[in-house]
Amino acid sequence: MSLSLPSIAAAIIDLDGTMVDTVGDFEQALARTLAELELPPVDRGFIMRTVGRGSMHLLRQTLAQAGGAPELLDTAWTHYQRHYADINGLHADVYPGVLEGLAAMRARGWRLACVTNKPRAFALALLEAKGLLPLFEHVFGGDSFERHKPDPLPLLKTCEALGTAPAHTLMVGDSSNDCEAARAAGCPVVLVSYGYNHGEPVAAARPDRVVDRLDALF
Ligand SMILES: O=C(O)COP(=O)(O)O
Ligand SMILES: [Mg+2]
């Protein structure tokens, strides 16, 4: 599939690793959760390789990495949600070029939606804290639909909500999850080079284009 920008009417933008560098938030919330369970913290590299498949996946992997018993997962989840809500956005920065890129999309008349695997309540609070929320018509999280990315369902549902055909709705993300979901939904896809792609170069996912900044798309 080749990317034809003039045919695009809307964009679905991923959050963690694409708009906001949230590793610091994950690091803090996980460290506090593990400390409460009397377990050692995990390192930043592990978090960067593991993030992207939803908070429950991250927590399950983290618990295993820290040597915690799988039976601790429910308790850990309760702690994690409380800690994440407390620090959400405090250790996170909007990447360079994001505001400019989103403004350029809006200037072209594109409709914008955010689709993340983060729980929706955390995504809304983070977008609000970073001043990005007013740019989006819809925000959907990992708990908004029955299945999350890399399943195409969230993208198909978002196209329905936007009223745009998948072929005219550009997915912009940072990982192979975003790319797989887009391919299966029939959306063209651009990946940013700077996010979290499970430690792999994004080009390996074979998106329609790779950009180093969101505003480099135009
Ligand atoms: O797994 C996460 O919570 C991050 O997800 P995202 O990259 O889809 O925003
Ligand atoms: Mg991401």
From TrEMBL:
<dbReference type="InterPro" id="IPR006439">
    <property type="entry name" value="HAD-SF_hydro_IA"/>
</dbReference>
<dbReference type="GO" id="GO:0008967">
    <property type="term" value="F:phosphoglycolate phosphatase activity"/>
</dbReference>
<feature type="binding site">
    <location>
        <position position="16"/>
    </location>
    <ligand>
        <name>Mg(2+)</name>
    </ligand>
</feature>
<keyword id="KW-0460">Magnesium</keyword>
<keyword id="KW-0119">Carbohydrate metabolism</keyword>
<dbReference type="InterPro" id="IPR023214">
    <property type="entry name" value="HAD_sf"/>
</dbReference>
<dbReference type="InterPro" id="IPR023198">
    <property type="entry name" value="PGP-like_dom2"/>
</dbReference>
<keyword id="KW-0113">Calvin cycle</keyword>
<keyword id="KW-0479">Metal-binding</keyword>
<dbReference type="GO" id="GO:0006281">
    <property type="term" value="P:DNA repair"/>
</dbReference>
<keyword id="KW-0378">Hydrolase</keyword>
<comment type="function">
    <text>Specifically catalyzes the dephosphorylation of 2-phosphoglycolate. Is involved in the dissimilation of the intracellular 2-phosphoglycolate formed during the DNA repair of 3'-phosphoglycolate ends, a major class of DNA lesions induced by oxidative stress.</text>
</comment>
<dbReference type="InterPro" id="IPR037512">
    <property type="entry name" value="PGPase_prok"/>
</dbReference>
<dbReference type="InterPro" id="IPR041492">
    <property type="entry name" value="HAD_2"/>
</dbReference>
<protein>
    <recommendedName>
        <fullName>Phosphoglycolate phosphatase</fullName>
        <ecNumber>3.1.3.18</ecNumber>
    </recommendedName>
</protein>
<feature type="binding site">
    <location>
        <position position="174"/>
    </location>
    <ligand>
        <name>Mg(2+)</name>
    </ligand>
</feature>
<feature type="binding site">
    <location>
        <position position="14"/>
    </location>
    <ligand>
        <name>Mg(2+)</name>
    </ligand>
</feature>
<feature type="active site" description="Nucleophile">
    <location>
        <position position="14"/>
    </location>
</feature>
<dbReference type="GO" id="GO:0046295">
    <property type="term" value="P:glycolate biosynthetic process"/>
</dbReference>
<dbReference type="GO" id="GO:0046872">
    <property type="term" value="F:metal ion binding"/>
</dbReference>
<dbReference type="GO" id="GO:0019253">
    <property type="term" value="P:reductive pentose-phosphate cycle"/>
</dbReference>
<comment type="similarity">
    <text>Belongs to the HAD-like hydrolase superfamily. CbbY/CbbZ/Gph/YieH family.</text>
</comment>
<dbReference type="InterPro" id="IPR036412">
    <property type="entry name" value="HAD-like_sf"/>
</dbReference>
<comment type="pathway">
    <text>Organic acid metabolism; glycolate biosynthesis; glycolate from 2-phosphoglycolate: step 1/1.</text>
</comment>
<comment type="subunit">
    <text>Homotrimer.</text>
</comment>
<dbReference type="Pfam" id="PF13419">
    <property type="entry name" value="HAD_2"/>
</dbReference>
<dbReference type="InterPro" id="IPR050155">
    <property type="entry name" value="HAD-like_hydrolase_sf"/>
</dbReference>
<dbReference type="GO" id="GO:0005829">
    <property type="term" value="C:cytosol"/>
</dbReference>
